[in-house]
Amino acid sequence: MSGPVPVHTRxxxxxxxxxxxxxxxxxxxxxxxxxxxxxxxWTRDHAxxxxxxxxxxxxxxxxxxxxxxxxxxxxxVGRGGASRTTIAGTEYVEIxxxxxxxxxxxxxxxxxxxxxxxxxxxxxxxxxxxAYTEIHNRRSRAVMERxxxxxxxEVRATGLVEGKDxxxxxxxxALYSIxxxxxAPS
Length: 186
Ligand SMILES: CC(C)(COP(=O)(O)OP(=O)(O)OC[C@H]1O[C@@H](n2cnc3c(N)ncnc32)[C@H](O)[C@@H]1OP(=O)(O)O)[C@@H](O)C(=O)NCCC(=O)NCCS
Prior knowledge:
- There is one protein chain.
- The chain has helices at residues 22-28, 32-35, 44-61, 108-123, 138-146, and strands at 7-8, 12-16, 65-70, 76-87, 90-99, 128-134, 150-160, 167-179.
- By secondary structure, it is of the alpha+beta class.
- It has one domain (7-183): Aminopeptidase (3-Layer(aba) Sandwich), CATH 3.40.630.
- The strands form two sheets. It has a five-stranded antiparallel β-sheet with strand order 1-2-3-4-5, with helices on both faces. A three-stranded antiparallel β-sheet has the order 6-8-7, covered by helices on one side.
- Helix 1 packs across helix 3.
- The longest helix has 18 residues, at 44-61.
- Coenzyme A is lined by residues 33-34, 37, 96-99, 104-110, 133, 137, 139-140, 143, 146.
- Residues 12-167 form the N-acetyltransferase domain.
- This is GNAT family N-acetyltransferase.
- InterPro entries: Acyl_CoA_acyltransferase, GNAT_dom, N-acetyltransferase.
């Protein structure tokens, strides 16, 4: 059976993650700008496990995470997409992104985020989509704001704490959401 078809945005080709994308997923998570926000680089085994989980999300929910490639050159740019996630005890359709540091400042995360909102609206038609990140991840919060998402409040999750080493189970996160068909800006 064939998997989800690629989604094309203005500059990117978005390919659903399945086990065949493990190497690219691993490669992305060797990037220092990404590793800094994920508690370090991923091992190949971890990338393989994550790729398998992402593939399950695509088959179970019809939504999931993509790897983003430059549409013209095929270069690996980043990743993003949507998944069903429990945040502070509540189940949400959550969107997210990560872009190689060399590509920051060019709007790629916003492009992935917009495509994700449209895709979720088309496939699920849900009326609320959430995103969350460590409270001090200003670049990711700025993406949420550019997508028209609103700050809902602070929640606790496993992640980084500003000024402290390592990953903490009760790190402060900023939760954002967007509702209704406005969740799919054109
Ligand atoms: C979070 C992350 C994806 C944000 O990347 P980013 O490059 O800052 O975000 P965008 O791709 O939306 O680019 C926005 C920047 O490009 C500029 N830009 C240029 N063209 C643009 C366009 N067409 N559309 C939007 N912004 C554009 C914006 O002005 C903005 O510039 P600024 O950084 O000077 O404010 C990136 O920092 C990252 O991968 N971090 C590590 C992983 C991570 O934290 N992921 C989030 C976990 S929740």
